[in-house]
Amino acid sequence: MEFEIVSKESIKPSSPTPPELRHLSPSLFDAPIPCHYVECVFFYHNNESSAGGRRRSHSEELKESLSEVLTHYYPFAGRLIDGASVECNDAGATFTEANLRCPMSDVTKNDEIWKLLCPGDGTEINPILSVQLTRFQCGGEAICVFLSHKISDLVTFATFMNDWASIARNHRGHHELLPVSPQFNASSFFPPGRESCPLVREQRRDHIVVKRFAFESPKIAALKAMVSEKVENPTRTQLLSALIYKAAVISTGGLGKQPLPPSSLLQMVNIRKRVVPPLPEALKGNIITFFVVPLQEEVELWEVVRDMKRNFEEFCDKYPKNYEAVEWCSLHKLYMEESFGRMAQNFYLCSSWCNVGLYEVDFGWGKPAWITMPDIIRRNSIGLMDAKDGEGMEAVVCLDKEVMAVFEKNQELLSFGCLKS
Where does this protein have compositionally biased stretches of type Basic and acidic residues (predicted)? Predict the structure, then answer.
């Protein structure tokens, strides 16, 4: 398996950012986010092999359309300063082009490949946006994108990717409507407080393992039918996050830590559509927060789902629906402080990447064959994603090595899902 970096360059916006937009202040939700990246890999089959070959290299098309979309998403071409504010100075996004001499199917068989697909190790503060295009020996390609979580949540990331792809398709003569210009003024809706609690404590990455689990639609339906006997209409995300959370906590107990260690799950929430009145559709940035699900002892799965559903509903009734109250930002800051004060030392972070249109990211040569997160994620983290069929789901789980060895054999987990890689 040979790996070669072909080129690495900085892609700047096709038009300069106006002086009045040169500084982006953090919002209430940006401030507590650590300097991590939203990280995603898009795999594409070779759908354009023909006697005539490709009209232009995908690399050229991606760079040209990236330059154009950065004119709209100008903060992504800037640089973080003081770990919070953004200097929108058109410094550019990093674009790396690489070749990997192995078939794309080897990705799920060789853990070392994941590191080669990434444009960095995820610890950098700048650049805000990094992209790597990797060509496989079979003709397939992977596009790995790192976008700073300090100024973007998953919804913003997904919108950016689809807008970028839309511009690329227009360059191929598809004549689609260009994306609406995004708004980066979240701080005017959610001004930051004087101080902020870190949403996630910085964690060491040594001795952690990443595994991917697949959950087919019939299995999810069976899980829902079982839990619905006790809990009314749970969502797919609630079911799988509760299943994985419970299995992870029990696996920690399986290491001889009896009774089970008190644990907490931080479940991320996109509040865009939960705020009353609704926020502008074009508003971008981090419009997310979290609620906490404690687990003090071993319980039935339906009880975890019940607590998750109840805590979520209580959170939504108290905060997003009252966001125009004068004291809302102060109340939310107090909520965060109280939540962290009650949070157990053994905590997990779960985010859902479902229903945001990532499988629609088509640059003109077809939709992705597979989308996943690379291995550069954090300890005790759970990422839920749609399967390609839109009905099944996949989970990317990151745990301590010894905990994962117990977790991946959990019978309740394996009765509804299977290990993918």
Answer: 1-11
Residue 53: pLDDT band (50, 70, 90) is very low
Per annotation, catalytic residue among 30, 149, 307, 332: 149
Distances (CA, A) of 352 to 116, 236, 331, 408: 25, 10, 25, 20
Angle, in degrees to the nearest 10, between helices 236-253 and 301-318: 120
Domains and CATH numbers, the chain: 2-187 (3.30.559.10), 208-355+374-419 (3.30.559.10)
Distance of CA 253 to the CA centre of its chain: 28
In tens, the pLDDT along 360-403 reads 999 999 999 999 998 766 889 999 999 999 999 999 999 999 99
pTM exceeds 0.70 for this model: yes
Residue 149 annotated to the active site: yes
> Residues 109-129: pLDDT tens digits?
888 899 999 998 777 788 999
What contacts 231, CB < 8 A, 6 or more positions away?
302, 305, 306, 309
pLDDT of residue 55: 46
Query: What is the rounded CA–CA span in Å between residue 269 and residue 330?
Result: 19
Euclidean distance between CA atoms 114 and 128, whole angstroms: 21
Q: Say how many C-beta atoms besides its own lie within 10 A of residue 11's C-beta.
A: 22
**Annotated catalytic residue 171:** no
Please tell me the distance from the alpha carbon of residue 288 to that of residue 257, in angstroms, as a whole number.
34
Length of the chain equals 421
